[in-house]
Amino acid sequence: MSRFNHRKYRPFTPIEIKNRTWPDKNITQAPIWSSVDLRDGNQALVEPMTVEQKKELFALLVDVGFKEIEIGFPSASQLDFDFTRWLIEEDQVPEDVTLQVLTQARPELIKRTYEALEGAHRAIVHVYNSTSTTQREQVFRMDKEGVKQIAVQGAKDVQELAKQYPQTEWIFQYSPESFTGTEMDYAVQVVDAVTEVWQPTPDNKVIINLPATVEVSTPNRFADQIEWFCRHVKNRESLIISLHTHNDRGCGVAAAELGLMAGADRIEGTLLGNGERTGNMDIVTMAMNMYSQGVDPKLQLGDMDRIVSTVKAVTQLPVHPRHAYAGELVFTAFSGSHQDAINKCLANQSDDKPWDVAYLPIDPRDLGRSYQEIIRVNSQSGKGGVAYTLAQEYGLSLPRWLQVEFSPIVQNYAEQDGGVINGATMKQLFEDSFATDSSPYQLGRYELSKDKSDTIRADIVTDAETLSVSGQGNGALSAFCHAVGQHLDTRIDVIQYSEHALGGTDSQAITYVQTNINGTRYNGVAKHEDIVSASLQALLATVNQYLLKRC
Hints:
The chain has helices at 37-43, 51-64, 78-89, 107-117, 133-140, 144-162, 184-198, 219-232, 252-261, 283-291, 304-315, 336-348, 383-394, 400-417, 423-434, 476-488, 531-550; strands spanning 32-35, 68-72, 98-104, 122-130, 169-177, 206-212, 239-245, 266-269, 442-450, 454-461, 466-473, 492-501, 509-517, 520-528. By secondary structure, it is an alpha/beta fold. The chain starts with 31 loop residues before the first strand and ends with a helix.
């Protein structure tokens, strides 16, 4: 039998719940956020953070706007103990930020926890013990009553020791660890026994944290568990229901979102999802999901580059380039059709209109990103990406007909080079292809006069001589076509023409011309302070291409 055998696994058994309400709910406001980066995130690292790294991350979490920050497990780690003392003794905790620490439901650890927090103006003491069937039967080898009594005694110890530190405002939190693997009626029994000790009120609530320590079901089944629990637990109005989801099935964010819809009030997670195994719930993703729906996440995520660089530095973990909202490439389009759609939508977007841009759920500027990062050109790119890059980086507003002509040139180069083409390379390709107004012919002096038609007399300079030409037409460009065509004894027709001013201090204009010479189309581009001169030079650029091809 193959070792890859699905029959060894049992499907998750869903709970029965009638008239569930969460599917009809929407998330309309942010939850209470609690960052566990410094505790849960830290313990998942191959090399735990140094004190200096913890300080840097704590400062970031405060700046982002977290009001509750779990800083460590001070009873189990001297480094965490010392960091807790530094925060308190050096007055590093803002008045509106509450420290949170974790402890097992063991009296000696709870005592050490309070020693670490002495002098804090406000703190959450988070006590936990595992309640799941697997842990009870195989790890603790205890019955339900024995495990429940561990929780009750831990609650009593937390409450009694708090009395010895009356200068601190204490908030109690309890977690039935591995909640998702616990029988729901038993989970309610344990929590009810804990809150019977603490006696919370609507004005003095306690936190009940329901961890998906291991993600064992689809998010909808987790939401059923949360709604069932909220319906059956005692004193619901005196509880803050908190969720702590993990990402074993890749659904940590979805589970937290549906759990919030099912009645939860508070979310624990980490920036960018660092955590045990496949990670914790990613607060950046969940908060930005709300933001994209017009909901204020109550977190300041506008400097995403700082968030990413800090998290990478302190965790020594990479951030995937396609990581939602935070990755380097999440707002980048390589596909030609995508680029074209983005380019068109951006041209139609203004600050007084709701955001509505194809392929971009949010405005990259909101996260400190530049529009220049949205479209990057490779062999899969199309004319929209090419046009966007030249417009953003060099102010070249290519008419659509020229986009069509230039795009294959870029793609051919990309296929040969095998990588992404930067703006400078693209601009050089553009000039090499179309700004060919200096060889073999170059525009010299010219005069325009007008009678019944426009007449031009112009000098065309070559390496060997200066040629004088003249012609008539409806406008300077038409007259110049006639003049050059007579000299070459061929017909030159202007098929397309476009012009625009270039930004900057030199007040130059740029013209784009497409001609038909002997049945073949050529494209020319030229810049000059005078728009007529630019037009004549652009036309001469098409003639030069014709002459070089004829040779």
